[in-house]
Amino acid sequence: MTPDDLLHRIRERVTHPSTVKELMRALKLPKTEAPGVRRALKTLVDRGALIETRGRHFGVPELMDLAPGRITVHPNGFGFVKLDQPIDEVTGDIYVAGHNLHDAMHGDRVLVRVERHGRDGRSEGRIVRILERSAATTVGRYDKEEHGLQYVTPFDKRLLMDVQIPAGDELGATPGQMVVIEVTRWPVHGRGALGRIIEIIGDLEAPGVDTQIIIRKHGIPDRHSDESIAEATRLGIEVDPKDIEGRTDFRGDVVVTIDGETARDFDDAISVERLANGHYLLKVHIADVAHYVHEGSALDTEAAERSTSVYFPERAVHMFPEELATGLCSLRPHVDRLVQSCVMEIDARGRVVESTMHDGVIVSRARMTYNEVAAILDGDEAQRKKYRELVPHFERMRELFVILNQRRYRRGSIDFDLPEAKIVLDSEGQIENILVAERNVAHRLIEEFMLVANETVAAFLESNDVPTLYRIHEAPDPLKVEQFEEFISTLGYSLSAGVSTVKPRHFQKLVEKLRGKPEERPIATLVLRTMQKARYDTQCHGHFGLAADAYAHFTSPIRRYPDLIVHRTLREFRHGLLSDALYEERTEELPELGRHTSEMERRADEAENELVAWKKVRFMADKVGEEYNGFITGVAPFGLFVQLVEHYVEGLVHISSLADDYYRHLDRVHQLRGENTHRVFRLGDPVRVQVLRVDQDRRQVDLGVVEVLDRIRESERNRGPRTSKAGPKAKAGSRPPTKGRPGKRERAVKKAVRRRK
């Protein structure tokens, strides 16, 4: 019996927390199955799907007002638990006050008890158990006090503790250095944390140290094991002729790869033909990583743990060793390469009327870049002459791209197509400039072909009931849709649909109306926040954003582990290897793998975004006092988040710098509104801001609204010189009276105003 089968039976037939014996009786199971039941119970408890009480009773968490999830701790001492699975009456994340954290640290997987539900739908709870610590290691700054006390302050401000380092465990570190520590004792019942230094990263300002800090902070494995590198090396660089036997031979086709200029691993190649009936024949060939990476091998084990490659501005941390990713599994031109191929016949309406899957072999005719293909399609004579034999193939690709893109549009697929930032680094690894990343027709062409291949493979697997991992994107939460609709109505927009009946096309139409308008980018960002996050799951729930009934990741097995799973399960079915035993094994193992790979994807996104944001803060360090145009990307009780138009940098206008009025936060309409001036700051509004301060420690850019700063300056000018009513004018240089003295931030604002005079 699989753990999921047991869980299903317990939910259906067991009415209260029960012992193993009671469960066996309630489920009418023979005693011979007791060992298997105990193993399944342990698995379910480890996953948080069941709760084991101190009396060794097993219960369903939600029936005990308990739920497993992962906690995010705010630097101010409270937290929010994001549940693994939604439960009744709980909308969004569960708020946990500081005194209810009960030693849980940021990133821990926990059990939370829901204790109250607010009128606004938000829930509050407390932590009752820590299921899994986020990591045994963390990165921070080493310091030593005069009397010898050694400690490390975590780089992550959400880890609310200093870790004491006993004498002899400092590994020769000197004060101020960034280090990696292993936590040997977690804080519990008032006792502080203990740890030992296991690695010295170096000085914070040294080149590359920032990337290493982010890698260590997020627990991303940075080195491949000797075993996996040895496995990759043994595979060699040339295809064994024996491996070609029995494969579909596509070597006579005009196949090309199209990637970025700096790409070194090419995992997809395409060809497009025109058939006699007027249809198109699209062949998407993907590197056959599954042929070389066997289940349970060192390469496979490490790739499963990593789940994805991570891309930083100055380097990448690859899922597979370079020997494999840029060797046998890279579809380099003019050499034989093994592939898994999805061949699709597509009609004039963009419908896939027939598809077949193959173990194939190809020879790529050329390694093309996006810019080269775009130049050819834009009529660049030099490029068209250089690739004259391939020009008709690229033009055919563009024809098919237009057809497929129109098909997606008709069904309601959402396409923001917003400009993205391109980071230009100097020799020290710091940002030299931030530009708009160009996205040309070749980028969109390849994206469209990969999308249709992913859909076709997913539909094939789903129709044949093959256990695998799908890429799912569920419909948005109705409450979030309601709040989004309430906000955009204040701007004169509407989804024109009920909150429970909204479809992708309603968001698509809204995005169209916003195209090219100043509010396009912030509202598009809010649309993304309204949506659920895409994730991996064994159930084919479709993809809301793409308006697709079935979707899976098939096209990047070099950099995403779920794609490798799809390749394996696809081959197992096609070759008749999916026995009942293997079917049961896949059904039991894949749900946990889906959860893990989704978490690792989120980890990679957070790490990539954090490093870029940090580099942006350092980029702004010498720009204090300068003014920029921006737009409001977020409204909170403590201030406004503003993104600068010129540099794609986001900063904070703290509420204390809005000193010309008392501003009230209106949550549902994303506004700060002045009580006396009635001045409104709203999500999406353009604003002119000045850089007041760049806080390297908090990694934050503090901004001030120029209009408000000018108003404060004018008020001070009209007020004239101050004199004390209680006595003679204070002497120059003397300390002003404490009563009525502005706070630290107010003084900073006034200082900034004086600089502008």
Condensed summary:
33% of the residues lie in helices and 26% in strands.
What's the SSE blueprint?
Blueprint: H1 3-13, H2 20-26, H3 34-47, E1 51-52, E2 58-59, E3 66-73, E4 79-83, E5 94-96, E6 109-117, E7 123-132, E8 137-144, E9 150-154, E10 163-164, E11 178-185, E12 193-202, H4 209-217, H5 226-234, H6 241-244, E13 248-249, E14 255-259, E15 268-274, E16 280-287, H7 289-292, H8 298-306, E17 310-311, E18 316-317, H9 322-328, E19 336-346, E20 352-369, H10 370-377, H11 381-386, H12 391-411, E21 420-425, E22 431-437, H13 441-463, E23 470-472, H14 478-489, H15 504-514, H16 520-530, E24 535-537, H17 561-574, H18 580-619, E25 627-636, E26 639-644, E27 650-654, E28 663-666, E29 671-674, E30 680-682, E31 686-695, E32 700-705, H19 706-719, H20 744-756
Parallel strand pairs: 5-7, 10-12, 13-20, 14-20, 27-32
Antiparallel strand pairs: 1-2, 3-4, 3-6, 4-5, 6-7, 8-9, 8-11, 9-10, 11-12, 15-16, 16-19, 17-18, 19-20, 21-22, 23-24, 25-26, 25-31, 26-27, 28-29, 29-30, 31-32
Helix content: 25-40%
CA gyration radius, whole angstroms: 29 Å
Sheet of most strands: 6 strands, mixed
- Oligomeric state of the chains? single chain
Shape: globular
Give the integer mean of the pLDDT values.
Answer: 89
Our estimate of the beta-strand percent is 25-35%
Give the number of DSSP strands.
Answer: 32
**Which regions are unreliable across 5 or more consecutive residues at pLDDT < 50?**
724-747
N-end to C-end Cα span: 77 Å
